[in-house]
Amino acid sequence: CKICGYPGHGVHFGVITCRACAAFFRRFVVMNLQYSCVKSEVRCSLDRIRRSSCRHCRFQKCLQMGMKADKVQWNRDTNAHYTEIDQHEKRELSWTSEPSISQSNQSFSETEVAGKISYYDDLDFSFQSQNSIQEEVYRIFSFKIENPHSLKPLFKFTEGLKRIREHQKTNDIKIEFEFSLESLALHWKKQAKNTAYLMTHSLNFQNLELSQKMKKFRKCWKSLYRLERILVSVEIFGDDCVTKKVRIQFENGIKLFYQGYSSSNPKSKCSFSLSRYFKKYANRLLNEVANPLIPLKLTLEEKSFLILTFLWTLGNFKLSMTYLNKSNDFLDEISDELHEYYRMHRVENCSPRALKMVKIVWAMKRIHEDDACGNF
């Protein structure tokens, strides 16, 4: 590799590099990242194990050695103007004061944690209640899940993805055309717990302070859950997900754009807001995320990589520079793991495949940002 000195894996963007440096360059260009030089003679040397020490110098060396940004195919989002956050969506699963639950230093097995949180239990998930789900999410994040087999980050997350899908039906799925706001709120709260449980399988996430975990969860849980549901929908429905506009929403499917919304006041502002939201948001999800996913037929490990990359590229909240550096180290690590997975399974054309996944992450990130800014 002309960048770090490790063995190269071929020509990437015009230069012989290893897969990790190719993935770094691709991510740097597609995500339009910016870093400052650490200004350290040792850390800026980029020799093998120190290749991630200074990302500014690493990218500059990529350019100096001849890697071409124009060889990375991607679509830049030109929409830079955002509106105010829609108040109805802002109130969705709003949080009250933080429960007095502290981080536990004790580790629990997968089975013990699943039993403790019992995320399909009979707690009060009524439309009016909000404290129960908040306390449950805090409780989930206070547990530390054991890693007895010393699984690497990508495969530990894959284990979590398998567990949350254990009860997902893959056939005889009923398609819903109408649902109530009450059932929708119930579903959101259950999925919030499910998403929290999945996030605990990110080893990088486990190392955060409890307050940082909650900050990240509040910011991105909805988009993370929706991405996971789109992945399930594509797996189950295939082309029909886009052509017939069906998607897994609850345990069953929903027919997008044809839903009815029932409540005590069918003509309420809330109902109209949901109708507007579903049409615009769902159309973006289908066209920009689901459609390019269909021909890829991702494995569970690739889906884990896609979800983790999305989770750790969302940086629209204020956390420490140490946290941001660890996030980037984590992205490098799972990129290396994915390429090793490809090598072990003799996957051909893995670089174009990885690029397509990064483009999907970038599309989902744009949708997340538009959603947060009230564009739907």
From TrEMBL:
Coiled-coil ranges per UniProt: none
Transmembrane segments: none
GO cellular-component term (any): nucleus
Keyword annotations from UniProtKB, A to Z: DNA-binding, Metal-binding, Nucleus, Receptor, Transcription, Transcription regulation, Zinc, Zinc-finger
Domain NR LBD, residue spans: 146-376
Domain Nuclear receptor residues, every copy: 1-74
SMART domains: HOLI, ZnF_C4
A molecular function (GO) term: DNA-binding transcription factor activity
Keyword check for Nucleus: yes
SUPFAM superfamilies on file: Glucocorticoid receptor-like (DNA-binding domain), Nuclear receptor ligand-binding domain
Localisation: Nucleus
PROSITE patterns cross-referenced by the UniProt entry: NR_LBD, NUCLEAR_REC_DBD_2
Family of this protein: Belongs to the nuclear hormone receptor family.
Name recorded for this polypeptide: Protein CBG04928
Source organism of the structure: Caenorhabditis briggsae
